[in-house]
Amino acid sequence: MSAYGHQMEQQYSAHSLSSRGSGRRQSSYVMDSGFYMSSFASTIFIGALVTVGVILITLLIALTVMLQSCQSRSHGVIEIEKPSYDYNYCQIISLHVELNKVEADHFPSICRVVALQYIKEGQYARDLNSTVWMIQNYFSTLKRDGVDVVLMDIDDVLSSSPQYIKLLVDRDDQYGSSDCVEEAKQLKHVYILRLYMKLHASGWPLILLSRKPETQLNSSIEYLISAGFRAWSSLIMRSEDDLQMDSCDYFSKQRAAMQRKGLRIIGTISSHMDALTGTSLGERIFKLPNPVYYSF
C-alpha cells in the first residue's frame, strides 16, 4: 500500500473513533464515580423518587387525619359520659321521689336540664317504643279466656285541668322548655293509643282507670273518643267517697272489687307508681317511662 493509502486509512480510523465517542456521549451520562446511566434509566429513577415522595406525603396526611379523628372521638366520649352520669343520678332521685311522694323542691336543678335533654335527644321516644314493644310481645304469647282483663291508667291521655297546665308551662318556661313538655305529652299519647289499639285488636278486654271524679265522666268519654279510644269494657272514675282516698288505695280498692267479681287481671299498665303498687296487682305490671319533669 502506498504512503498515501496508509495516511488515508489512519485518518479514517481516527474519524471513526471520534464519531463513536461523540455518539456515546450523546446517549449516556458520565458520573464522577465512573457510573454510566442511560437517559431511559435516569427517567425511571427520577420517576421512582417522585412516586416514593408522593407516597410518603400521603401517609403523613393520613396519619395526621387519623390522629385528629382519635382525638375527636376521645373528646366526645368525655362529653357523653357526664350527661349519662347526670341522667342516671336524676333517674334514681325521680324514682324515689315518686315512690315516697317527696315534694318537688327536693329536686336538684340539674335534673330539669337532664329531663329536657332526655326528650330532645330522642331517648324518651326510644324508651317508650321499647316498653310498648315488650308489652305487646308479652300479650301475644298468652291465650285469653272469658275472665281475663287488662287495666290501663288513662290519665296520661285525659287532659289535665287548665290551672295545672298553666302551672306546668310557667315552670318550664323558666327553662325555655314548654314546647318540649308538650312534645313529651304528645309522644306518650301516641304510644298509649297504639298500644290500646293493638291490645283491642287482639281481643283483650280493656278497663280504663282514672283518678278524676265521676262528675267528669261525660267529658272524659267525649275526650277519649275524639282522641281515638273506643270500645273499652269500662271506664272507672272516682266516686265522691273515693276523692279523699289516697290514689294508691283507690287503685287497690278497684282491683280488689274486680277480682271479687271473678275477673282475672292479666296486666296493669301505667306510667305512675300509685297505679302499680298496693294490693291485688294481678299477673303482671308494666310501667311506661316518664321524663323526670313529671316529678318536679
Automatic annotation (TrEMBL):
UniProt KW Oxidoreductase keyword: no
Disordered: annotated segments: 1-24
Keyword field contains ATP-binding: no
Transmembrane segments: 34-67
Keywords, sorted A to Z: Membrane, Transmembrane, Transmembrane helix
Pfam families linked: Acid_phosphat_B
Signal peptide feature range: none
Family annotation (InterPro entries): Acid_phosphat_B-like, HAD_sf
Name the UniProt record assigns to this protein: Acid phosphatase
Annotated source species: Prunus persica (Peach)
